[in-house]
Amino acid sequence: VNTRRRLVDLYITSYNRSLLLAEVLKSVLNSISYSKKLRFRITVIIDKYDDNYLDVIRQYGNKVSFVCLQLNLGLPFALNFLRKHTQLVSERTEEFSDFICYLQDDCLIEAEEIFFDTLVSAYDKLDPVYNIGYLSGFHCDLHPGFDKTSFDGHTVVLSDSIDGKMFFGSSSVFNSVGDIPWYFGREKDFAPKGNPGPIYGSHFDLWQWKESPRSLVRQGRLNLIFPGFCTHLCAQVESSTWNNDTSEAFVKSRIQEGRV
């Protein structure tokens, strides 16, 4: 019997929210302590370092690898960087991850005791049925899904689209989607959309499920969402780092325009 614990590359990106990062890291490490099936390699990228992060690095530096950038280069750069960082570390250590897990610094794990082992069990059992892109613990009105099923007593939402605040999946699927370019979008503007913003939304997550030539939709993959497994700490405009409007009217307009 193969009892090897499979390896997860866990990524967290943070910008201007050191206190929230500390809270999220505490939750992540608590969740990891309950996992009986997985091992973890954690990397945090701080997009534009300031000294408020120093206490977080001191507290968690023995368990987490930190990458600190002097400039705010945005989520697409951060995710591309993390992908390449993982590749180099894996080649050097000759240890390649089976899964990736991504969280933003305002996405808190709620279901700590069951979080990771439930996600990996669901992946193993449901991937042959649904051809899974990603699993997520964060559900919101912007990505309502089109159907529901259940797994191990939990409601599971089936969705083509997925929110970028948190996702979990196989490393091979993540790598197959490819790096995010700096310029892409509608033919009418071709504006730079490497960073999220109130006009365009975050193309960082659109690229994953929809806009990449190898997006999850184009690969015929579905996303499975476990509502309530995570919560969003900065759901209001005033607490968002990119003026994210989550009002009902704005959410409806984004869905109608396909910007989800």
General description of the model:
- The protein is of the alpha/beta class.
- 33% of the residues lie in helices and 23% in strands.
- It is built from 7 helices and 11 strands.
- It has helices at residues 18-34, 54-60, 74-93, 115-130, 171-177, 203-211, 248-257, and strands at residues 6-14, 38-46, 65-68, 99-104, 107-109, 132-136, 147-151, 154-159, 166-170, 222-225, 230-232.
- A 5-stranded mixed beta sheet has the order 3-2-1-4-9, sandwiched between helices.
- The longest helix is centred in the N-terminal third of the chain and has 20 residues, at 74-93.
- The protein starts with 5 loop residues before the first strand and ends with a helix.
- Mean pLDDT is 86; it is low at 184-188, 194-202 and 236-243.
The total beta strand count reads 11
Q: Strand sequence of the main sheet, in spatial order?
A: 3-2-1-4-9
Determine the mean pLDDT. Answer: 86
What's the SSE pattern?
A: EHEHEHEEHEEEEHHEEH
Topology:
Elements lengths: L5 E9 L3 H17 L3 E9 L7 H7 L4 E4 L5 H20 L5 E6 L2 E3 L5 H16 L1 E5 L10 E5 L2 E6 L6 E5 H7 L25 H9 L10 E4 L4 E3 L15 H10 L3
Parallel strand pairs: 1-2, 1-4, 2-3, 6-10
Antiparallel strand pairs: 4-9, 5-11, 7-8, 8-10
